[in-house]
């Protein structure tokens, strides 16, 4: 009967998504342990045990139940919150316009495991001993070793989202490749990609709205939940007001600009390395290096680039955290949002500085024959780019190795106690932290940037990335369910600041692709030649190739006698002139009139392309509503039914018209709605 009453209270009317699945809400058993603390057994025989007991006593004082199990090397402490804590949580988050009094008589609502874990984790992290030590302080001193929520017993490999797992959207997993697909369709394709990026985000927003309704999170407020958890942890908690400091913002801006300049400087250091490595390998005493100079430069350059990205990623994360601490955000969600912006900005320049150099600078600052730009007056700069692809070690290898090592460890140590066996199995899994899913999101943002910002240079990147993701998304499921400890679940209505990051990347992609087409490809010079200098303008014959003579037209003439030391140039006595890619006029070799005309056309094209593409993006964003009409109508219906229900109860109290009629169907189930929404790790 309890289950039937729960189904009646929670299911909405009509054919829409159910607000709650019965299977995801497990009744709270008296011995259901959702969270475990781990300590080494030697802490039970030294002074650290006193600090350990003080921390556990603080948890007991806050109505937490603790169970101790010890094996040969480790001591496990199972943590479970009392029912009174969940009742207080539900009371604090009940909306004023929520359920009517008759709903209070319903059967007690089971508390989802995700809610239990979230509450326990928050209190454990915020609890302090009498000496002011937090759990993290005790871990640093070796009092505890680890903390983690438990996977559900018998949890199978994910054919879909799992309770408390990752609901993130995998988009692209492909490392950047630089290859020029230079043809007349590039402009159309670039505009199409700008349109696709917008439609993609709009479809994502529509799906998000459906999921939010499905999980009953439309009125959910993350800040409100955090305040409720603070009050549960400490009834004397004082509200932290919003604050802003122009001085702090100025300091953060200056430090961020310094870091961005450092990222750009690192890209230039890589350029210098490739120049020096090329000269070193060319003059090497080893014969095989002289024949494989390009290969050696590419391989060592890619290795240096990869190591640089790894090192700068760690530095960027540390700097972004320090900047957030200096800014003193009010809540965890606000801190997470600001950290996301800081870290992504630094990572963007770390990953893309080299590509920006290759796309827009490489080969354009080299001077001309007879007066080439040299590093320290000795070594010539690169004129063409060498293919480089750097990225993390392939995840399938890591997954396979970790899976085998975990199975081998379990085979050697199998406790007889099933509860201890389950806790130990969870302990042996790979540890996770607050950055585990954050790193996944960051990786996707960088990949999304690779496949949109430079798509005009490599149109196959999205297709190859799609094939890669079809494999990668399954590997992530294996990693999160079988190989990693359970992530702490969080309720969220959207992906937060990451959506703004995606929209920013979409705008940057329009600008970058416009500049690639205008300045990197041959599209503009060919079009100008075709309509200004081509033989088609002189001959009416349609069979004439309008680009005939374009190559010679795009080459400038250099007289060998103008070399600074022509006698040292081998074969110069037999060659009087040569051709090179540029628009210059001898004898002073300044830029020609044609160069300035092409530059004006290129700038005009960039402005026109960006305005057209951005207008198309805005029209597409307006044309595709963020929220489907079915979702809006469902929310409207719930509000209407809630008002009718309140009106009926008001007339009942006043004895007015319609007092004897049947009450309308409740628009919202009961206080269970606080617990009914599924949770997602963000």
TrEMBL record:
Keywords: Membrane, Transmembrane, Transmembrane helix. One of its GO terms (molecular function) is chloride channel activity. The chain crosses the membrane at residues 185-204, 251-273, 293-312, 339-362, 445-471, 495-519. It comes from the Eukaryota. It is a multi-pass membrane protein. It is found in: Membrane. One of its GO terms (cellular component) is plasma membrane. Its main location: membrane. Residues 172-385, 409-635 form the Anoctamin transmembrane domain. Belongs to the anoctamin family. This is Anoctamin. It comes from Colobus angolensis palliatus.
